[in-house]
Specification:
The protein has one helix at about 100-105; strands at about 1-5, 10-15, 45-50, 60-65, 75, 85-90, 95-100, 110-114. With about 110 residues, it is mainly beta. It starts with a strand and ends with a strand.
Length: about 110
């Protein structure tokens, strides 16, 4: 608390002291995470393990990465660059194919690096 006296008055009032906040920079965590995937970890040929309720433990290989932001036809990529990039997965041992966005692949926590 801080005592404040009005000019020309004998009355003193108490006010909370103003705190000076130190300038702090927020630093983003840059380590490796075994649950949530980073876009630099997903490239063509990477094998992922599926931990969903159905088909738990199956392995999938990344076969194609497409960017549809600029054109409807898409642009093929070697590595994921944006969270909106579409990743095509083929199940190892069968021809089952899934095309999912990297955003889902990264944040769902049911896909992990094999």
């Amino acid at each position: 608390m801080m005592a404040v006296r009005k000019k020309g008055s004998n009355v003193v009032t108490l006010r909370p002291a103003k705190l000076k906040q130190a300038s702090t920079k927020v630093q983003r965590w840059q380590g490796e995470d075994s649950v949530f995937l980073h876009r630099s970890q997903i490239r063509i040929g990477v094998v992922l393990t599926y931990f969903g309720r159905i088909n738990h433990g199956q392995r999938w290989r990344v076969t194609e990465i497409m960017d549809y932001r600029t054109t409807d036809r898409g642009r093929k990529l070697e590595v994921v660059t944006q969270s909106t990039d579409a990743v095509t997965l083929v199940r190892i041992g069968s021809n089952q194919t899934r095309r999912i966005s990297f955003m889902y692949l990264s944040y769902s926590a049911i896909w992990r690096l094999a």
